[in-house]
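Can't paste images in this forum, so I'm doing it all in text. The chain is below; anyone willing to post the predicted structure tokens underneath?
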Amino acid sequence: MISRIRVFIKNLQQENVVGNVLSIEIATAVLLFEVMRADQENSETEISKVIELLQKQFKLNKNEVLEILAAAEDESFHANDFYRFTNTINNQFPLEERIKIVESLWLVAYADGVLDAIEEHIIRRIADLLHLRHSEYIQCKLKIQKQLNPKI
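Text version of the structure:
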């Protein structure tokens, strides 16, 4: 009987540990969501861009992405900073993948056709927390600008 109780308690502890682990998908979605809501306007183009980027990055269907975004929105509103999310990404992604995430942040910022100073500031903070050098941050921005406007 006591051994069953120990097994039961161990299972509960493992579930809580797993439940407290932040998924890479949600961590990424939170960062995208933060850039999207930075200018106080969640345009349809920005929302569509976030959905598209998450589907492409993690090979998810739209329903899965919408569930992740709901969780990300909740996490975002209860977060004091970006560290928990960037730390999850830093622990699971190599530099190349972290650079892709920063490129995605730029795509969201430019999705509505206007880059606000607060969006740029947030992307800079996130890039720092993802351990990108300043030159990598600038290269990401320039790459996305050129992709969106090849005449640059």
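Confidence is low (pLDDT under 50) at residues 4-20. The CA atoms of residues 38 and 119 lie 6 Å apart.
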